[in-house]
Design goal:
This protein has 27 helices and 15 strands. The strands form four sheets. A six-stranded mixed sheet has the order 9-12-13-6-14-15, with helices on both faces. Strands 5-4-7-8 form a four-stranded antiparallel sheet, covered by helices on one side. The chain folds into four domains: 293 residues, ABC transporter transmembrane region fold (Up-down Bundle), CATH 1.20.1560.10; 163 residues, no CATH class; 167 residues, Rossmann fold, CATH 3.40.50.300; 77 residues, P-loop containing nucleotide triphosphate hydrolases (Rossmann fold), CATH 3.40.50.300. A hairpin with a 2-residue loop joins strand 7 and strand 8. It has 746 residues and is α/β, with parallel strands linked by helices.
Amino acid sequence: MLRLIRYLKPYVAFILLAIALLFVQANADLALPDYMSRIVNYGIQQGGVESAVPDAIRQSEMNKVVLFMTAEDKALVLSHYTLVDKESPDYERYLKQYPTLATEPVYVLNRIDKAQREALKPIMGKALVVVSGIEQIMADPSKAAAMGQTLGFDLSKLPPGVDLFALLGRLPEAQLTQMTEAIQERFAALGESMINQMAVRAVKAEYDALGVDTSKLQTNYILRTGSSMLLISLLSITCAIIVGFLASRTAAGLARDLRRQVFRRVMSFGGAEFDKFSTASLITRSTNDVTQVQMVVMLMMRMVFYAPIIGVGGVIRAIDKSANMWWIIAVAVLVLLGLIMTVFSIALPKFKAIQKLVDRLNLVVRENLSGMLVIRAFNKQQVEEARFDDANRDLTRTSLFVNRVMVVMMPLMMLVMNGLSLTIIWVGSHQVAASTMQVGDMMAFLQYAMQIVFAFLMLTMMFIFLPRASVSGDRIADVLETQPSIRDPEQPKSFKEPFEGTVEFCHVHFRYPNALEDVLHDISFVAKPGQTTAFIGSTGSGKSTIINLIPRFYDVTSGAIYVDGLDIREVRQSDLRDKIGYIPQRGILFSGTIESNLRYADEDASEEAIRQAVEIAQAEEFVFATPEGLATEIAQGGANVSGGQKQRLSIARALVKKPPIYIFDDSFSALDFKTDAALRRALKEITHDSTVLIVTQRVSTVMNADQIIVLDEGRIVGKGTHRELLETCAVYREIVQSQLGKEELV
């Protein structure tokens, strides 16, 4: 996969935007459990009151609270409050909010920022808890007596109507401090959060005393927090939709680019590269492999960037909710990592095997489809079915093994997740019972733990697809990084004008890639314009190899090939091939119409030129035999025409091009002798100024050639006209004797 990174360059903007949106989405998702915690802690348990710092407090209550503060704390608190009474300018406004203001003055909190409120919270919280604690103690005679021992007198025997706090205000400062410390020792084990929670109850009681509608306060808090959660959820959904769109566009665009690049690279391959990659493998690489990469890129943009943000953010927020339960998440993460690594180590080799087995299955299918007539002719249907079954079963067996490994993974993941939930609830419930944790915080911790686990589940899904996509990416990169052995020169030369078309082989040797021996040895000849040069020899003598060297399907091992005096390696391949009309032994037609196949050579060819080419190629008898004529449909691969018809249409296609050099690679082998003779007579008229090279095994095809080159085991063993070779070349004479009667040898 890393070898294909550079092909993502056009989509960097999409990827960066997607990452930014994923960051927003992840933070939105991480915020939701915290809002849920607030609804439970503050909205339900604390009646909508968040802070231990009251927005308003009666003067009488404030006098009690400041008793248990240091002088500095008392000054700080009072500096942030304003005393409102009937003489105050804002009296009427505050009276609507706090009806009790009609009977006694009220301290109203000034406008302060969050930092100032946080600074006041522990001061007011502890003082409110102390005041609340004393009031609770006074309600219980046994506790009042115990507290009286600290003060030196029995509080339970105070006369009715005596104000304890007024009495405490008259105590010496040292004694009051001692009493405050004794009460605060009761809350020493409580954390700041629990002290704040206990103080909030006193604040709520104070709001009730002020005449505030606390039920409405609670409802408004829940609705306000719930609305925030809804907006955050909508933001998360919007980000997810946009990221999905960007991921799809990026993945589809990358797949399109990869297919285009693979196709272009394959189009530049020479024969050596096609020997390295089979056709079935190239088809798999440009289809199935690209699809695998496309799927993984889409999942990576949607999950791989999102999961770490959720995982890391979830850990931070979970620890913030309860730092002493971090070990639960750590154990779960370690178990998940172990599980993922185990599955990954088992599955990766199998994914590599799957892609090779897909290649093999495609190869078998392709061979069966292309060779169906031969299979039926030899009654080998059962043999081929067995061969297909073997390939199919190997692929199925390997795929099932991988799927079984993945199937086992999900139940184990669910087991870990459920075990994690139970552990958090078990430990958290004990902490709630011990007043060291709030219920809402435990619920938020549980949700954060689930988010962390789901982040690993998302990564696990990636581990399911990534190994196979990694293999596919490497296979695609192998094609893209394969440099064609046949390349254009850095400073190409141009053919002179007017172009003549002389072809000269000068001491050419050739060896196929990875072969041990040369297949052509010291080949030298000149093919001139206006002449026909024919190559004849036994099967495997090197005839087609010589022909394939001229258009540079392969490059010579040593020696040189010149066209009009220029080494063909010094000109562009396109310039060279533009001068050549190539007709292969096996006629290749493309799906479309007869006319579209003929215009393949020259899109701007006139209809008259196309008809003339059809007539010269002796194809008019079947082309114009139907009402459609040139518009007759050609099936894929020319499956709806015979071999001879394919060859004639291939010849007609080359004639439409009107090149100065014609190469016929045994292009008359599927024609009967009558059609062969008529076609060659018609060809001679139109190619009289061109260089014509013919490969054939028929003596009748080469008898009238201006130059016949006889090949045997890659060497030229004869060169001359038909009559000259009969006298000087034993190999040619044997070929002629095997095909013609004795009376035709004269």
